[in-house]
Amino acid sequence: MNHPSSRKPFTPDQIRSVAADVTAGWEERLRTLVGIDCGTQNPAGVKRAGDIFAGWMADAGFQVTHLPIEGCAGLWVGRMRGSGQRRIGLLGHADTVYPDGTAEERPMQRRGHRLVGPGVCDMKGGLLVGLYAIQVLRRLGWEDFGEICLVVNSEEETGSFHTRNRMIELLSGMDAVYVLEAARANGNIVSARAGVIQLILTAHGRSAHAGVEPEKGANAVVELIDRLQWLRKRASEEETFRINIGTIQGGTRSNVVPDRAEAQVDIRLFHPDAVSRVEALVREVVSRPGISGVRMEADMKLWFPPMVRNPAIERLAVLARACASSLGIHLRDTDTGGGSDANWIAAHGVPCLDGLGPVGGLDHGPDEYIEPESVVPRTSLLALLMSCTPLANMREGRA
Predict the structure, then answer these.
(1) Are the C-beta atoms of 62 and 92 separated by less than 8 Å?
(2) How far, in Å, CA of 51 to CA of 54, rounded?
(3) Buried b vs exposed e over 40-51: b needs ≥16 C-beta within 10 Å?
(4) SS3 content of the chain, % helix, strand, coil (to 5)
(5) Cis status, amide bond into 123, omega within 30 of 0
(6) Which H or E element spans position 80?
(7) Phi and psi at residue 38, in whole multiples of 5°?
(8) pTM above the 0.85 mark?
(9) Pairing between strand 63-67 and 75-81?
(10) What is the SS3 assignment for the chain?
(11) Cα distance between residue 377 and residue 382, in whole Å
(12) Catalytic residue list
């Protein structure tokens, strides 16, 4: 907190007061976004939600561009110029996991001290907190930044396969990127995330009559089970990743030697070396000798690399905790087994914190919620943290 760029230019009372003012009407804005079916599989719905939010970005002073990208609804990019040097990124997404019809079936509603609805937590509430934090700083006249870049993704829930390269291009070189996913249910922010690999193992065998000519068959189900057992044993010896064998499908009838079987395996990565170790293990499981006549095939997709809590991220986490303390907020940072777009940004060397949105939980389910009382405090925290963000020369290994 001694570096000049990390001195707080505003008092906590000023931040809180302005945050309470600029967030007036936030619940209706949230209701507007949550009322749109915008599952990733519905790019028109995602585009509609993103365009509405882009209009609010423009009203807040951003120069907004929509970048069309084949295969999805693209990216929305808002840029704001200041008179300083630091470059700060904010990152969120407009898509959800919910099927069409959910918005009408389960409109946003209050349940006690919670607001419940599809996407309130993951992550429409976070988008609004990011927008309002900018408005707080503008209201206070803060211009000690070179650029603020707010990027809204349209396909985070399916791994950002089409958008990830453009996101990385837009946010590389930032002094910090704050990802607007919700805080954990206990209020924690996220300083480390597991990476995610989705693996599909397929065994191709040969069918035959199980009673009359079983010797002419090659049992794909048996071979797949044997390989999965071997994979599970080997993975249990690893500390850099863990696996979950999620689904197994194969065969047609009990009296037919199955000629095909498939398993879907979720792999969580906890170390930068984990990807290469998983790749080597998958090559081994495919090439192992087995039942004659069965051929193995692997389809491995990296959804997210691991977000490792390095010294640069540690410094941001310490700063966030100090900012929170000055606002009377008890804050800790934690790791999580879930991936987000933060993983890609952090993996490219940009200091990154996640979970800067409102407090919430139960994502992807019928009881997904945020705590409305957390909106003003989390807006205040993000605004203060942005104003204190250190310049790039505070990063690890740079003088």
Answers:
(1) no
(2) 5
(3) bbbbebbbbbbe
(4) 40, 25, 35
(5) yes
(6) strand 75-81
(7) -140, 40
(8) yes
(9) antiparallel
(10) CCCHHHCCCCCHHHHHHHHHHHCCCHHHHHHHHHCCCCECCCHHHHHHHHHHHHHHHHHCCCEEEEECCCCCCCEEEEEEECCCCCEEEEEEECCECCCCCHHHHCCCEEECCEEECCCHHHHHHHHHHHHHHHHHHHHCCCCCCCEEEEEEECCHHHCCCCCHHHHHHHHCCCCEEEECCCECCCCCEEEEECEEEEEEEEEECECEECCCCHHHCECHHHHHHHHHHHHHHHHCCCCCEEEEEEEEEECCCCCEECCEEEEEEEEEECCCCHHHHHHHHHHHHHHCCCCCCCEEEEEEEEEECCECCCHHHHHHHHHHHHHHHHCCCCCCEEEECCCCHHHHHHHCCCCEEECCCCEEECCCCCCCEECHHHHHHHHHHHHHHHHHCCCHHHCCCCC
(11) 9
(12) 95, 156
For tokens 């993103």, what's the residue? 50
Contact 92, 153 (CB under 8 A): yes
Q: Is 131 exposed, middle or buried (0-12, 13-18, 19+ CB in 10 A)?
A: buried
Domains of the chain, each with CATH number or no CATH? 4-193+307-394 (3.40.630.10), 195-304 (3.30.70.360)
Q: pLDDT tens for the chain, 399 residues: list them.
A: 444 344 456 888 999 999 999 999 999 999 999 999 999 999 999 999 999 999 999 999 999 999 999 999 999 999 999 999 999 999 999 999 999 999 999 999 999 999 999 999 999 999 999 999 999 999 999 999 999 999 999 999 999 999 999 999 999 999 999 999 999 999 999 999 999 999 999 999 999 999 999 999 999 999 999 999 999 999 999 999 999 999 999 999 999 999 999 999 999 999 999 999 999 999 999 999 999 999 999 999 999 999 999 999 999 999 999 999 999 999 999 999 989 999 999 999 999 999 999 999 999 999 999 999 999 999 999 999 999 999 865 444 443
Give whole-number Cα distances, 287 to 24, 228, 299, 328, in Å.
61, 13, 14, 57
CA distance 232 to 165: 33
* Two tokens, residue 22: 């600029």
Entry field: residues in the chain: 399
Vertex 50 angle, CA 148 and 78, to 5°: 15
Question: What tokens appear for 84 in the block?
Answer: 């300083």
